[in-house]
Every structure is written in C-alpha cells, then in structure tokens.
Design the sequence.
C-alpha cells in the first residue's frame, strides 16, 4: 500500500510529494484503512463463529467464503447478511 501511495503522489501531486509522504501522512493514509479492515474481518469471524451449524460442514469450493459458511447455519443469519452487504 505504501508503494502505491508513493507512486500516486509522485505522479499526481509531485510538488506536494514530501508533504504527503511524511510520517504523519503515513499514519493517516495507511493505518486508518488497515485498522478498518482488521475490525471488519474480526467482526465477520466472530459472527460466523457464534452460529450453530446443523447441516453438512462441507463447502463446495476450495476457499472459505463468509456467506458460503453462513448458509450452512441453522439459526438466523440476518446480522451476517447485513454485515456481508457492508
């Protein structure tokens, strides 16, 4: 992500490159989206882990997708569906 931002600012805003690539800008441009994604992933994992499963525990593909896992659950998956749309 840092390299992508570096190239973006070098091409699109070359006169303000040093300002954008300072340490405080790094925190603003990189850590905020990373923390948002970590919180989102932890919420998805905790919601999927709290469900009870009564059908087969096999998913039809080779990767574990959240909504494919949730469809195997017996109870209400309303909150998981709302979070999956976010």
Sequence:
């Amino acid at each position: 992500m840092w390299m992508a931002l570096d190239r973006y600012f070098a091409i699109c805003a070359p006169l303000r490159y040093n300002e954008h690539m300072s340490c405080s800008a790094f925190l603003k441009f990189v850590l905020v989206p990373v923390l948002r994604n970590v919180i989102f992933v932890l919420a998805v994992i905790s919601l999927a882990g709290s469900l009870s499963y009564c059908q087969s525990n096999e998913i039809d593909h080779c990767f574990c997708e959240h909504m494919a896992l949730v469809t195997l659950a017996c109870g209400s998956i309303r909150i998981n569906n709302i979070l999956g749309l976010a």
